[in-house]
Amino acid sequence: MTGFDAFTGMLDYPVYVVTAAAPEPAGCLVGFAGQCSIDPARFTVWLSKANHTHAVALRAPALGVHLLPPDHRLAELFGGRTGDECDKFAATAWRRGPEGVPVLAAAPAWFVGGVLDRVDWGDHTGFLLEPRHVHAPGSATPVLSFRDVADIDAGHPA
């Protein structure tokens, strides 16, 4: 383990399912994401270039960012399986939300953000989002974190 691996191993932060449609729905588990501006409000998600969702997101004008409930069901579905081999959306309840973006019914909170920019950052692409439609009930609902999903093997090809 390198020094930086030891540093990042101490971190714990929320994980998300990011969804896109262009026009087919796609979604994946994302550990690299966060608010990057307060005023104006901005959020960045980084999608692995190896992931099926990456190709769809490159064509999508907006992305959905979902916080996950504490159970592992959605994380295992969207993180442990790949859209190259299965239809993840056939295995969970969802609907077309604002701007046509897939919204997961079991997500305790989510937002749809317009893609303002896409930046190549090595093995991931950063998507700068402008939050446009937000569903957040405002309660202190527990959400799934990075450490909670450390045992899930990535479903996308290496």
Structure description:
The chain has 158 residues and is mainly beta. The chain has one domain (13-149): Electron Transport, Fmn-binding Protein, Chain A (Pnp Oxidase, Chain A). Helix content is 15%, strand content 39%. It has 3 helices and 9 strands; from the N terminus they run H-E-E-E-E-H-E-H-E-E-E-E. The strands form 2 sheets. Strands 2-1-5-8-9-4-3 form a 7-stranded antiparallel beta sheet. Strand 6 and strand 7 form a beta hairpin. The radius of gyration is 15 Å and the shape is globular. The relative contact order is 0.24.
What layout of secondary structure does this protein have?
Blueprint (H helix, E strand, L loop, with lengths): L2 H7 L6 E6 L3 E6 L2 E5 L4 E7 L3 H8 L2 E6 L5 H8 L13 E3 L5 E3 L4 E13 L2 E12 L23
Antiparallel strand pairs: 1-2, 1-5, 3-4, 4-9, 5-8, 6-7, 8-9
